[in-house]
Amino acid sequence: MSDDTGTEPAIDRAALASWMQTRLDGADAVEIDEFAPPRSGYSAETTVFTARVTRGGETAAEKYVVRRETPEPPVYPVQSDLQVEIEIQYRIMDAVSSHSAVPVAPLVGFEQDPSVLGAPFFVMGFVDGEVPIESPIYTSEGFFVDATPAQRRDMLFDGLRILSDIHKIDWRSAGLDWLAGGAGADPGTLRQMDIWEQYCRRELGEREHPLFDEGMAWLRANVPPQPDVCLSWGDPRPGNIIWRDFRGV
Fold it and tell me: What residues are paired with 32 via a beta bridge?
């Protein structure tokens, strides 16, 4: 979810241009031309910008996206020891891109040092397409409403294909052991219970919740058989996929 503030983000253009020049292949010079209004989501501040990139004497306008860490606490439980949420995002996107055919925006790089832009950030290429909106909901107006039944079917099945491809990734070979707590850790049901119980108790603070206590006790006493563990996308809404010609891109 995101909000349009209508104001230009407080991003140092010169610092971003200098950083981009060291990471774009063959770039002799980079100049930040314009920012789109920032879109601040629950997990990071997201801003679209245009860069004028010079390579071998030729200058072209290229579109990118920068995501900066926000100071707000995580919306969802953090499942690794990493405290910088966008580093988690970047590393997972990099692994998925390198070990599957799942469409991922081309990554430019991640920066841990907050002195560059005021907070850790990463940059990726801009992917053109349609994004189902939530206000008003995409099922009431927009390209999904205007689509034919066959086009909606194509969209549905391609979204399911993307989810399936994510689940098929060998997360160990992809170097995602750190998501499970490190090499040798058990990433199964009990770990998920621990993660969610810690999260809920953090949110409850000093408040008592007997029903929650009873529910957790029952779950721990009735742990189901351990299924095979796979990589799972926790928020696969249509609005979290960019669509072009009713295919996820």
Answer: 51
How far apart, in Å, do the first and last CA atoms of the chain sit?
19
Q: Which ranges of 99-148 would DSSP assign to H, the alpha helix?
A: 143-146
Q: Among residues 240, 111, 109, which one has the least CA distance to residue 166?
A: 240
Alpha helices, DSSP H, located in the chain: 13-21, 85-98, 143-146, 149-168, 189-204, 210-221
- Tens digit of pLDDT for each residue in 101-155? 999 999 999 999 999 999 999 999 999 999 998 888 999 999 999 999 999 999 9
- Domains of the chain with bracketed CATH: 13-125 (3.30.200.20)
* The two three-digit tokens of residue 99, written as one number: 């070990």
Is 77's pLDDT higher than 70? no
Q: What is the residue-wise DSSP string for 2-30?
A: --B--S-----HHHHHHHHHTTSTT-SEE
Dihedral, CA atoms, 82, 87, 91, 93, nearest 10 degrees? 130
In the block, residue with structure tokens 């491809």? 165
